[in-house]
Amino acid sequence: MIDVQQLRALVELSRLGTVSAAAESLGFSQSTVSHQLAALSRATGAVLLTRAGRGVRLTEEGRVLAARGQEILDLLDRTEREAISMARAEAGRVRLAAFPSAVASLVPGVLDIVGRQHPGLEVELVDAEPPEALDALRRGRVDAALSFSYVDDDAGEGLQAVHLLDDVLYLVSHPGGITCVADGARCRWVTGCARCREELIAVGRANGFAPETAYASDDYVAVQALVAAGVGAALLPGMALSAYRHEGVQVRPLTREHRRVEVVTRAERPRPLAVDVLVEACRTAARRTSLRRPAVRGGGSSVVR
Predict the structure, then answer these.
(1) Which spans of this chain does the record mark as coiled coil (predicted)?
(2) Whose CB among 147, 154, 208, 237 lies 3.0–4.6 Å from 167's, allowing a Cys bridge?
(3) 234-237 and 159-173 as β-strands: parallel, antiparallel, unpaired?
(4) Is the pLDDT confidence value at 299 over 50?
(5) Residues 6+ apart with CB under 8 A from 257
(6) Domain containing 117 — which CATH number?
(7) Is the distance from CB of 150 to CB of 123 less than 8 angstroms?
(8) What are the tens digits of pLDDT across the range 136-192?
(9) Structurally, how many domains does the chain consist of?
(10) Sorting pLDDT into bands at 50, 70 and 90, what band is 53?
(11) Are residues 205 and 64 in the same domain?
């Protein structure tokens, strides 16, 4: 049976060239290392060393076993790190940044899954829109971020994204207001976050108008209240409408418009197991989340850009 410490002795001899240097590196006496090498030779039935002047050198068999030994030691090291990470995943803390409509619709499922499967793992939640969330992720202030984008772009250098779902956009208007986004020039608009405002401008451009902004708010509850009061129309994602729906508005889907919702982490290997647990919980929650399709009010067909 090959002993791990015997392999370490052979690997250190291969790396440093002398028994004395290997012994010093390992913190053993030269005689102890020599005994370990002799025992390894007996265990394998191979001649690993040959005399070279006043010292020794590895035979071809010794060089091959030293290379394999390094691979085995590397694997043991990775296994140890993963085991430590696993223990921390069972009792530790992981930080998740999320935008408001995700907090209201997706995050409860994530917390439920983590709480049931890993009761010792605490999820610390940070409210943040995607730009701030991704910046916090890069700076190491959070471990993962729920983000969204309206174009299929890359998460950015040093980050990796896992697609969770496509969130359909809806035209939200007063019951007496517009029922088609192509009529957007006839009204003013209540806009949301910076990315949402950019998407509204893009939708307006595609339909031949420049949106006139009446009010801006990151709060989708406030946006709907303003629309219900007749201040203007809005574009809202399905996640926001599934979390809260004002009775005084009508909604219609923009069948070709959606945003990509993703969970983003740092591109590091090996990734902490607690982060893997969180990412998998996000994926499971996204699969389970039934984004209720808001009832279309006011007649007519779905809005198509």
Answers:
(1) none
(2) 237
(3) antiparallel
(4) no
(5) 168, 169, 199, 203, 235, 305
(6) 3.40.190.290
(7) no
(8) 999 999 999 999 988 766 667 889 999 999 999 999 999 989 988 889 999 999 998
(9) 2
(10) confident
(11) no
291 and 177 in a common domain: yes
Q: How many other C-beta atoms can be found within 10 angstroms of the C-beta atom of residue 33?
A: 25
Task: Please count the other Cβ atoms lying within 10 Å of the Cβ belonging to residue 288.
Answer: 11
Q: Which of 278, 279, 277, 274 is nearest to 84 (CA)?
A: 274
Cβ-based neighbours of 282, under 8 Å, separated by 6 or more: 106, 110, 144, 146, 162, 164, 263
**Token couple for 138:** 């890069």
26-44 pLDDT per residue, tens: 999 999 999 999 999 999 9
Alpha carbon distance, N-terminus to C-terminus of the chain: 71
Tokens of 107: 């995050």
The reply to whether 131 and 63 lie within a common domain is: no
Residue carrying structure tokens 């979390």: 243
Give the percent of the chain with pLDDT over 70. Answer: 90
